[in-house]
Predict the 3D structure of the following.
Amino acid sequence: MLGALSRNRPLLALLRGGNGGDKAASAALWAASKRFMSSDNTITVREALNSAIDEEMSADNKVFVMGEEVGEYQGAYKVTKGLLQKFGPDRVLDTPITEAGFTGLGVGAAMYGLKPIVEFMTFNFAMQAIDHLINSAAKTNYMSGGTINVPIVFRGPNGAAAGVAAQHSQCFAAWYGQVPGLKVLVPYDAEDARGLMKAAIRDPDPVVFLENELLYGESFPVSQEVLDPSFTLPIGKAKIMREGDDLTIVTFSKMVGYALKAADELAKEGISVEVVNLRSIRPLDRETINASVRKTSRLLTLEEGWPQHGVGAEICASVVEESFYYLDAPVERICGADVPMPYAANLERLAVPQVRLGSVGLYGSRVKKRCADACM
Amino acid sequence: MPEIDKALVLKIYQNMVTLQSMDSLFFEAQRQGRFSFYLTSFGEEAITIASAAALSDDDMVYAQYREPGVLMWRGFTLNEFANQCFSNDLDYGKGRQMPIHYGSAKLNYATVSSPIATQLPHAVGAAYAFKMDQKPLCSATYFGDGATSEGDFHGAMNFAAVLEAPVLFICRNNGYAISTPAHEQFKGDGVVCKGQAYGVRSFRVDGNDALAVYATVKAARKMAVEESRPILIEALTYRVGHHSTSDDSGKYRKGDEMHHWKTMRDPVVRLRRWLEGEGWWDSDADQQLRAETRNEVIAAMQRAGPRMKQPLANLFTDVYDTIPSHLRQQEKELRSTVARHRQDYPFDVPL
């Protein structure tokens, strides 16, 4: 925020200067400055996460950050930038390379009453600590008869990035989404990132916070309300990003952007698509999903992860169980290919959903074809 | 050797005898099918009781599963032990855990978690929290020789050293990890040398000498708390009993080995002889204590066994801090199913 204000001054001065200079130039300047002067701001997902963590750490001494490279290096993806300088090494811990070690330590600290935010450089590496996530964090409140809470947040990039191959590209939403005792959040834009991160830190249950590396740098306009330090989003509520009547696409994380683009394209062909941004895998907002499908009568789930036992499978089951008689067509899933993620760029592109795939038109045209078929 | 008064040593001895009594009778109860599982501390009574006596009651304990002695020292009653094993309506764990997976928030004993060595980094986390809060406390974590092979042992030790966290790592090297003898578990010189590799000050003590254990843990705790550093203690002992009721150790070790340790090296007998030497105990007092504790254990089982089990609602609570709507819905559905099939519903589970 402070950074944005200091950028304002030269522009404002120029505009107020108004010595009758070049109207076109002024207009261009005005247009450029509008984003700073209007009540709407634009921030990246990275800034959203950073500011959310910063504000929660300022508000509550018990919150601390831990992970590899989170401190001196400012974060492997710069999400924790500036936090070490602001809060000191007691509250921003650079850890040795042991996911099992620091995850276990975080869980122990949470059991005692602190509120750790544990960063995994990617959730692929969290597999080395997954016993602590499931057996030590998720199940503990239940197995201790409600006497031990674990108010911990596990966060980091999840799913496919670009050119990082199989061991850096897996989507873990379905795995963690299956576990009772965990909450699993999947922010898409900056508003999601801020609101859900703050809610996650304040939540007494263990939260798995699945970010996306390619979204960190994307900018989104946010309202003043979102920038307020008290802003949170409720956990377990999906958001209708775009209303429509012909087809419901239920999706999360980066695929929300793809679904919105696909919806734009399909609108040109007269197909009206409703896009549901899940925001939360567990709890899953079955009410919103089913209400949408009952309106449109057609369901498409979209995810980057593998098809078998994926997030889409659960959504389809929920809709078939609860809204069967509202469906005009079978439910459809679009998922990543059932292969470990290849490295080569051309193969990688084919292994995940695309809005359009040019002449190959594989997945893009499948969306269009299925919508077209379904709408007949 | 720190000052120890008569009352303290007698209390240590009485707790060791009570633990032996509880173990014998509960083991038999499992064999009779009264509960599903049990695990004894035979041969290791000194380690848990004497070490607990040297800690502060506010120190957080993260146990493996063979340390009910620590809970017993801190005041967990025979009723409370029995309630957990019988998984009845008074069980603090609300029926979610196997027997011997005790826990007590008020006695600062974290609920036992089955996976081996996962409690070690938890203990480091708690110690880090004490340090941040500047409390003059430590965390103490117990584990066996086998646990030192787990990755979590490595991560916890390294972290504790790097963070300078006040943790006591208390290893019960009892010679076996189920059927794996220590010489097949590691090729180094036991556990004490592992600590040194991490820069953790390490001690080896005769785990069957209650007074030595007490003295060592007392000194170690002082170092941990005052110097804010981890300490590793390897207490050498022997697992006289089977690993658990799921084990028959006669299959992998010789009877005379077990017999030797049981008769010649028993920590309870050793302390008893020392007490008798001091003139603080005699065989009449011993007989009386054993008879009393036996009756108390039996009475606790007789109270706990017939009690009702946990109510149906506790199937669904504590998954999260507040019960989510889908679980409320499932409970409703379950109750309506039960109402339709009342005759099939167990009599001892309150609705």
User: Anything to note?
Assistant: Residues 1-21, 30-38, 357-365 of chain A have pLDDT under 50 and may be disordered. The interface with chain B takes residues 64, 90, 93, 95-96, 98, 100-114, 116, 131-132, 135-136, 140-149, 180-181, 183, 203-205, 236, 283, 286 of chain A (CB under 8 Å). The CA atoms of residues 192 and 325 of chain A lie 33 Å apart. The first helix of chain A runs from residue 2 to 17.
